[in-house]
Every structure is written in structure tokens, then in C-alpha cells.
Design the sequence.
């Protein structure tokens, strides 16, 4: 399904789209958080791209690890440790593999989600990234079991993530800065769920 | 935006360098990092204390690095938690055989970044533990939120825990004292004006001419409500009422801290202090010591917070122990 060149290509696509969506994500965050999510994501992935361009990488795992470390050391706040842990975990589960397949993709996403839930101590329904990622993984697994191609299954996962983002608009935040708003957080999409959706969509489009 | 800065991207670097020039007998900077450590670090005979957080709250936390308080302070970008690698470097630089205690304010990002740093240091066989300060009673319903925020009360945690560490106590004892302070310290503040994060260039919220936000956080997080400005005594009565309702201070001795957020003159802080003392006296709560000044600011925000720490004999003794830092001296 994907070798290191493909993974690099997907990361570059994520960098581009996050740069494009920088202000949009920041506006979402300004409504219920501290208004820096888009700036931080663009900064983090920009730093990841710089690191990736410094040397040659041998495996998809190396690339994922470099992205994870860059996010952890450049972003700060909550997004850095959460996305950084997600990429680091994903890199570990495909260690040494030269080519990753759809089973690896599922394993990477699952361990990434575990990392986010562990680090952020969040579960579904708290208006966080988890609300986009968990339903996406469930949809992906189901679609693969039903015999869909990886591409088709990822499209279903992206749809589930989009539904997850829409769901965050209807619930009260109980994690992160938005939680201080209590009921006033209803009516706003969670910026972290939105950035997770954007990343999943970019992966699907570039597979 | 009117600010005395150069490039917004360089504010943290330049502020740290300025602090080192101002206080060369207390602090030095870790080359290449946004970290200030005690000039004489690492000190082998004691547990080292490391705190930190976003910048914009000066003198917190670098101003409290020195004898009897912190061994290291990590400065994140303005209002943004420092990254784990920066905290990890601070820990490595100050750690002795007795280990390191991290003092973290209760914000989602701070906790995650400090926890990761702890894991990194533990991988190097450094003994590390941490405590989380959550003194802001403005956040109610903490079962359903991230929990109360850490604000000015953190400075009292630095002071008393720092004194305990100076005695040469072991890590679990130092942590016990830190947790005791955390369990007995409560704060609440209000804002008269917003502040401007240099990189954003505009205020993070707006208040009308006569409007204040009660319970506002030190990053401009929402408080309990907005209202029209009232006389100082009424503002104090409200904030202090919330604090005194949160834990039972009856018959106890306390340390009071009146903390200016930055643009509120000392004159007004003393007016606040006067009323705080009157109310506490009325309620039979004895003020052991008062601190009035700027300890945990919020860029150029106008406003103040009140902190009340309920003492016992151990905390009293440790509060009185000597401290010599750029922003807090006790002889």
C-alpha cells in the first residue's frame, strides 16, 4: 500500500493543508479555547517538514518518528504532546517495515488513538480529537472486514470522522480549555477534532 | 498594540537574557534553552524543584529561582506550556541524587508536557515526581471540567516546598509538603482590562468601559460572570467570600497574598489588602503574614487576585525560612 516515499508524500500533503487551514483552525479555537490551534499545527508540521528534508529516511517508521518528535518539541500546549504521541506510537507499531499495508494502517491509527487517550485522559463524548478519530477507526475496520478496498474503507472512515466533528458541536466540553466554558461550549466544533478530520481526509486522498 | 518589544517571536529569549543580566548572582541560563536555573545548580544535598509554564506571568516563574525556592524554571511561549524537551533539560541540569519535584499548574497542556518530560527523565534513571497546583476557586463543577486552574497560589507552593527541600528532606517528604500547601491554598481574581499576546497583536477578549470579568483566569480564560465595576470593598467581599466558602478557615492562621495582574497600581492593591484584613478579622481568621505585589501577572492586564493559605505549624515554620530569589526575599 505505501512505502517511505508515499508516507513522505502524505506528510507533505498534511503540511500543505494545515498551512492552508491555519486561520480557519485558529478561528475555531478562538471561539472556545485560546485561539492558537491552527498556528501551532502549522508551526509543528512546518518544523517536521524541515527535519524530514535534512536527511534521507529508510523506513516509513523513521518518517513517522521524526514527525512525532518535531511536534513534541516545537508545538507546546496540548496539541504538541497529543499529536506527537500519536505519530510516535504509530512509528513504533511499524518499526523496520519497508512497506505498510491496510492492517498496518489500522494498527497505526489504533495505537495513535491509544496514545491520545492515554496522554489526554479523554474518552469519546468529551469534545476532543477522540470524537473524530475513534469513530473513524471503527468505520475503517468495519469496512475492511466487509471486503472494501483500503481506499473505500478510508473514505468511510473520513465520513465517520466528519460526523464525529459535527457531533462535537452538540456537546459540552469536559476536557481542555473549552471546559471552562461549560454549556457555553455547545454550538462550536472542537478544533482538535477538526484538525484530526483534516489529517485523516488528507491521508485518504493521498493513498 | 503598544508594546516595548522587538520581534514578537523573540520576546521569551530576550526576557530571559534580561533576567540573567539583572540577577547574575541568582540565576544562569541553560545555553540554547528557555530555562533558568540556580547559579549553583545542581545542588547534591537537596531535592531540586522545577516549575514553569507559559511566559507572560513574570516574575513567575524565573523570578523565584534561587535559595529556598526553585532550582529551575522553564519558560514556554507566551501563554503556552513549554515543550517536554525544555522541561527535560531543566530537570537534567538541576537533578542530584535526591531527585526532582515538578510543580505544575493545572492546565491540560502543562500537565501533558511535564508528564512527558518526567517520562524522559525517568528513562535516564533520574528520580522525578510532580504535583499539580489548582487554587483558582472561580472554576466550579470541577468534576465536569479540566478542574480548577493553577494561579497565584503557586508562588506559595514554591516558597514553602522550596524551604522543605532546603532542609535536605527526601523527595516523598518534599512532595507531601507541596501537596499540603496545595490542599490549603485558594485564590480568585478579577480582570478590569484584557491583555494582548504579542504574537496575536490584539486583545484576546473585550470588556466595556465600566465592565469587569469576575473569576477570570491568568490567560484570559472565562470567569464566573461579567458585571459593572463596583467599589473595591465590594469586589473584595465577593472574591474573599468565594475563597472562604471553599475550605474551612475558621480559627486558623493564614498567609494572604494580594497579587496584581500587572496594570493595577500598588495603591489599589493596598486598598484591597486593607479590606481583606478587615473581613478576616471579623471572621476570627488571623493573618500571620501578608504579601502585596506582583507575583503571577498576566501581561498588561489590569486586575488582581486574592490568595489565602491556611497554615499549620509546619507550613508556618517553612514560610518563615530564608529565601533569596530575584522576586522573593525573606531574611
Sequence:
Amino acid at each position: 500500500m505505501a512505502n517511505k516515499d508515499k508516507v513522505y508524500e502524505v506528510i507533505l500533503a498534511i503540511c500543505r493543508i494545515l498551512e492552508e487551514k491555519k486561520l480557519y483552525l485558529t478561528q475555531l479555537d478562538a471561539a472556545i479555547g485560546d485561539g492558537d490551534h491552527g498556528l501551532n499545527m502549522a508551526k509543528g508540521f512546518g518544523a517536521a517538514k524541515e527535519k524530514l528534508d535534512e536527511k534521507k529516511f529508510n523506513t516509513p517508521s523513521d518518517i513517522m518518528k521524526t514527525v512525532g518528535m518535531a511536534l513534541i518539541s516545537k508545538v507546546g500546549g496540548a496539541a504538541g504532546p497529543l499529536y506527537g504521541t500519536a505519530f510516535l506510537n504509530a512509528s513504533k507499531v511499524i518499526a523496520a517495515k519497508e512497506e505498510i499495508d491496510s492492517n498496518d494502517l489500522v494498527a497505526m491509527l489504533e495505537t495513535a488513538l491509544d496514545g491520545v487517550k492515554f496522554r489526554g485522559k479523554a474518552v469519546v463524548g468529551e469534545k476532543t480529537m477522540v470524537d473524530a478519530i475513534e469513530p473513524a477507526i471503527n468505520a475503517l475496520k468495519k469496512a475492511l472486514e466487509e471486503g472494501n478496498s483500503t481506499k473505500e474503507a478510508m473514505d468511510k472512515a473520513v465520513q465517520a470522522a466528519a460526523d464525529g466533528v459535527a457531533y462535537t458541536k452538540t456537546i459540552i466540553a469536559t476536557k481542555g480549555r473549552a471546559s471552562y466554558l461549560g454549556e457555553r461550549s455547545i454550538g462550536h466544533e472542537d478544533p482538535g477534532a477538526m484538525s484530526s478530520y483534516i489529517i485523516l481526509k488528507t491521508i485518504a486522498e493521498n493513498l | 498594540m503598544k508594546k516595548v518589544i522587538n520581534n514578537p517571536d523573540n520576546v521569551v529569549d530576550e526576557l530571559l537574557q534580561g533576567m540573567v543580566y539583572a540577577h547574575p548572582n541568582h540565576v544562569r541560563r541553560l545555553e540554547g534553552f528557555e530555562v533558568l536555573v540556580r547559579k549553583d545548580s545542581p545542588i547534591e544535598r537537596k531535592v531540586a524543584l522545577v516549575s514553569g509554564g507559559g511566559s507572560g506571568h513574570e516574575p513567575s516563574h524565573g523570578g523565584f529561582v534561587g535559595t529556598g525556592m526553585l532550582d529551575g524554571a522553564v519558560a514556554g511561549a507566551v501563554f503556552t506550556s513549554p515543550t517536554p524537551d525544555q522541561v527535560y533539560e531543566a530537570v537534567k541540569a538541576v537533578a542530584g541524587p535526591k531527585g526532582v519535584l515538578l510543580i505544575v499548574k493545572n492546565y491540560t497542556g502543562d500537565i501533558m508536557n511535564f508528564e512527558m518530560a518526567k517520562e524522559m527523565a525517568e528513562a535516564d534513571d533520574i528520580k522525578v515526581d510532580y504535583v499539580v497546583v489548582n487554587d483558582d476557586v472561580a472554576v466550579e463543577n470541577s468534576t465536569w471540567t479540566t478542574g480548577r486552574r493553577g494561579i497565584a497560589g503557586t508562588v506559595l507552593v514554591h516558597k514553602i516546598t522550596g524551604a522543605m527541600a532546603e532542609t535536605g528532606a527526601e523527595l516523598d517528604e518534599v512532595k507531601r509538603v507541596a501537596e499540603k500547601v496545595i490542599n490549603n491554598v485558594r485564590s480568585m481574581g478579577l480582570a478590569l482590562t484584557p491583555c494582548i499576546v504579542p504574537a496575536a497583536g490584539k486583545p484576546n477578549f473585550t470588556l466595556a468601559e465600566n465592565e469587569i470579568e469576575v473569576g477570570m483566569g491568568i490567560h484570559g480564560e472565562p470567569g464566573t460572570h461579567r458585571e459593572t465595576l463596583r467599589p473595591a470593598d465590594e469586589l473584595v467581599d465577593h472574591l474573599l467570600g468565594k475563597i472562604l466558602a471553599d475550605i474551612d478557615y475558621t480559627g486558623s492562621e493564614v498567609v494572604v497574598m494580594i497579587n496584581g495582574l500587572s496594570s493595577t497600581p500598588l495603591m489599589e492593591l493596598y486598598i484591597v489588602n486593607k479590606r481583606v484584613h478587615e473581613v478576616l478579622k471579623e471572621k476570627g481568621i488571623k493573618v500571620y503574614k501578608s504579601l502585596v505585589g506582583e507575583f503571577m501577572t498576566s501581561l498588561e492586564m489590569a486586575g488582581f487576585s486574592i490568595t489565602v493559605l491556611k497554615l499549620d505549624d509546619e507550613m508556618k515554620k517553612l514560610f518563615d525560612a530564608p529565601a533569596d530569589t530575584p522576586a522573593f526575599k525573606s531574611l
Q: What stands out?
A: The first helix of chain B runs from residue 11 to 22. Chain B touches chain A at residues 76-77, 79-85, 107-109, 112-113, 115-116, 139, 141, 144-146, 149, 199-200, 204, 217, 219-222 (CB under 8 Å). Chain B has a mean pLDDT of 95.
